[in-house]
Amino acid sequence: MSEGFIVWLSTNPVTTWLVRNVFSRLDPAIFKATNGRLTSMGPPAMPMATVTTIGRRSGEPRPVHLACVEHDGHPHVVASAMGQERHPAWRYNLEAHPEVEVQMPGERFTAQAEMLSDAEKEAIWGEVCSAISQMNVYVRRTDRNIRVFRLRRASF
Questions:
Q1: What pLDDT is attached to residue 45?
Q2: Chain centroid to CA 123: how far?
Q3: In the 8-state DSSP scheme, what is residue 156?
């Protein structure tokens, strides 16, 4: 399949609804259970991570499945919310409780989430858009400043 078709398929309104309402609930469990080898759609087509935050209001674990970009030895996740008008809830959870559990293919670790400054974001934004082709569509959908978070592995 061509990259253009994959971007169209993954960003059209029906698929966006499915991702937000169905796959987002299934993928964290499938990804963790298969040690990062599978999602509800099969093997991941891009680098992915399941990040488990602590709910800022509930105090409960909240897993979210996200595309990620490796940069300078750290995974980075993007709070795009698929270009929705509002920031995703997990962004606020990270700000309130930055210690998270991360599942990546073949690896599970604890990390400290750090929101990148606008200058830091600008420095890696090209890599983000190259790794996550849909990001160009998401940026056109919203006027908000889409935030990027570095997940710095905890050292023991």
A1: 74
A2: 18
A3: -
Place of tokens 């995703």: 88
Instruction: Indicate the residue type of 101.
Output: E
% of the chain residues with pLDDT over 90: 51
Residue ranges covered by each domain of the chain:
3-153
* Residue pair 35/105 in contact by the 8 Å Cβ criterion: yes
Q: Pick the closest to residue 66 from 57, 56, 58, 93 (CA basis).
A: 93
DSSP assigned state of 39? B
Nearest alpha carbon to residue 41 among 74, 67, 59, 68: 67
Domain 3-153 top-level CATH class:
mainly beta
Question: How many whole angstroms separate alpha carbon 43 and alpha carbon 103?
Answer: 15
Q: What are the structure tokens assigned to 102, written together?
A: 């991360």
Least Cα distance to 81 among 19, 5, 130 occurs for 19
Q: How far is it, in rounded angstroms, from Cα 121 to Cα 16? A: 25
pLDDT digits (tens, 9 = 90+) for 112-148: 999 999 999 999 999 999 988 888 888 888 999 999 9
Per residue in 7-26, pLDDT tens?
666 666 776 676 666 676 77
Pairing of strands 99-104, 74-78: unpaired
